[in-house]
Amino acid sequence: MKLLVVSPFVVYPGVPHGGGALCWGQLEGLAEKHEVHFLAFAQDGSAELTAALPHLERICASVTTVHQPLGKLTILRAKVAQLALKPVGASICNVAAMHSALLQLKKNMRPDAVLMQFPQMAQYVKDATDLPTLMDVQDAYSVSSFRQFKSTRGWLKRIQAFLNWLGWLRYEAKWYPRFTAVAAITEQDRLGLEVFSPGLGATTSPAAVGLPDLKWAPSDSKRVAFIGSFTHLPNVAALRFFLDSVWPLVLQAHPDAVFEVAGKGVPADLKVRAGKNLVFAGVVPDAYAFVRSAAVVVVPVLSGGGIKIKTLEAMATGCPIVATSIGAEETGAISGEHMLIADTPIAFAMHINSLLSDPVQSQRLGSNAKALIAKRFSWQAKWASLNGLLDASVSKHQQAAVQDKGTQQ
Fold first, then answer.
1. Which residue has the higher pLDDT, 220 or 251?
2. DSSP class of residue 118?
């Protein structure tokens, strides 16, 4: 079929955030079976666009990008709109040029179905109600923003987090029911969507991750690694929690340990803490290569929905991992068998310290984690799931059209 994929960002091999990595893998599989046309936001002349275009043009029938205004005035307006329960992320992505591009592509290519990715793009369903539409949620923001609210401290920040949650709750309840089908990547997100939008009928299409040829091969140094995009607020909160409450406890036992952080958007007040025990690597070309040389990979997230692709990637490489319950959820991992799981600073630090001192335990956990990935998160299963959902969306849309025609007669 002719498939139009609408995304909030361009994707490519090695894109430096988990959601993008998952979307690229999905796109590769879909392009093998369908004529894919790709529409996304991208900053003109950006490094991301330069990196992505050759790969997108190789597998897609067409690639269209729209400039997304991200100036201070745009962001300020979005923050003011939050008072009216309009989520900042959705406001920033509500761009007239994107609406125009979507309508023009519909007219020119006549797609058989439209796949929209991530909540902030759901609002564009109003431009495609005449077609079968599949919402690929990726991260249910009504669920993850509620968690963020629960973990926020300080009355002003809690008010902001509460408004953010109400905004996403209202937004998702408004737009998701307009899709032909809605897919979450975890059962928890699916259930959350059903609670907030009864009768939505969302389904689950699990995440996937490839098994790299690279295997865990730590250097002699006691290197602890964390990777993520710090334009994503749960990752910022995780980094603050780790630096403030966990890392000092690790250094007490291992003063020669080094914490290395990869990813873009680290806040300036955290970057200034860099020193001999703390390194900010910025965007790295290969997430697998970054984690495979670490003695321990940490996923200290306290909020966020979906599944943490960073966790799956570390598991796929066979790295020993210490994660919070949220960082490990929906992976199927059992603490002590596939990784170590802790939710308090003391327990989290104790787990890191034990792995830094016990390479045998590290090897056992990493091997078990890799075997779990091979069993539960294959790309073949993901592609089959997506294709099944697209076929079902087309059939459902056709049946609805026949019923509407019968009613009118």
1. 251
2. S
